[in-house]
Each structure stands twice: as C-alpha cells, then as structure tokens.
Amino acid sequence: MKSLNKIVILLGLSAVVTSCFDKKSPNYQYFPNMYEAVSYETYAESDAFENGKEGQLVPDGAIKRGFVPYEYPNTTEGYEMAKANLQSPLDATAKASDKGAQLYGVYCAICHGEKGDGKGNLSKREKFLGVPSYKDRVITEGSVFHVETYGLNAMGSHANQLSADERWMVASYVMKLKSEL
C-alpha cells in the first residue's frame, strides 16, 4: 500500500511539473541575454560614456600597445631608403640563432628555395614564375626587411605572420644564404 501511495504521489508530482511546459515558449531561460541579445549600432551613442559618443573613437595618432611603427613608406623611394639606411636592431646572438632558418623554411623556401636560388617547389611547378635568386640581386638586410614588411611584385607582405624581430631574423638568414651562393 505504501509503495502504491509513493507511485501515485510520484506520478502526480511529475504531472504537475510537466503540465506547464510549452516547447514554443519556455517559462524559464538560463542567461536570457544570450537568447535575446541587445544589439548595438557601431559608433552609436551609448550610456556607457558620460557624454554619449565621446570616448568611443580612437584618437588620431594612437598606436596599438607594443607596436613599433615602421617609418619607411611603401614606395620605390621607401625601398631605396630602407636599402641604404635601415640596419637590424638584433644582436649577434639573435642573428646567429636557428630561428631565422626555421622561419625561412616555413615562409620563404616554398618559393625562393632552401638555398635562396629561386628554385622552390612552387617555382619548379611553375605556379610562380620569375622568383629571383638572391645571388642576382643587390640586397641588404634593410631591403629584405622592407620587402617582408610590405611585399614586392608577386610576393605578399609577411607583416601579419611574422613579428618585426622574426622578420629581422629571416633577413639576416637571407643575407647568409646570399653569401653562400
């Protein structure tokens, strides 16, 4: 008899709990802001700032924290200035590290070849024609860094993939390859 009472109570309790449930409009939402998010218009006035819009926009001349601006423009004159004047800020131990060779193998060797002779896999398969050999070019560390930063002709910029120090390491390694050709 006691077990029959328990079963009846359990069935009655479950009927009460599930009778108010509606799949189309649940009566309880966990984190309702996730389901019904408030949308904001970009650069619209907001209560988050005392004077509405002020404080939202980035001031003129602001740079990202830790970012060092590159002062040479993406022009032929900028390339020539970088070739003549730009020097690597890295010390001798950073230039001699194997990281430059590893980065060159990842980002450059596919086109320029392992030895810098312009005979990488993409050149051999004629995907990119006219990839220069470093032996034939009048280049400096500054000009290599400039080209890595902005790109030149069919070569795109590597500034998003490599930090400034990594680009200097690759430039140092390119100059080492040029001396070995």
UniProtKB/TrEMBL annotation:
<keyword id="KW-0408">Iron</keyword>
<feature type="domain" description="Cytochrome c">
    <location>
        <begin position="95"/>
        <end position="178"/>
    </location>
</feature>
<keyword id="KW-0479">Metal-binding</keyword>
<protein>
    <submittedName>
        <fullName>Mono/diheme cytochrome c family protein</fullName>
    </submittedName>
</protein>
<dbReference type="InterPro" id="IPR036909">
    <property type="entry name" value="Cyt_c-like_dom_sf"/>
</dbReference>
<dbReference type="InterPro" id="IPR009056">
    <property type="entry name" value="Cyt_c-like_dom"/>
</dbReference>
<dbReference type="Pfam" id="PF13442">
    <property type="entry name" value="Cytochrome_CBB3"/>
</dbReference>
<keyword id="KW-0349">Heme</keyword>
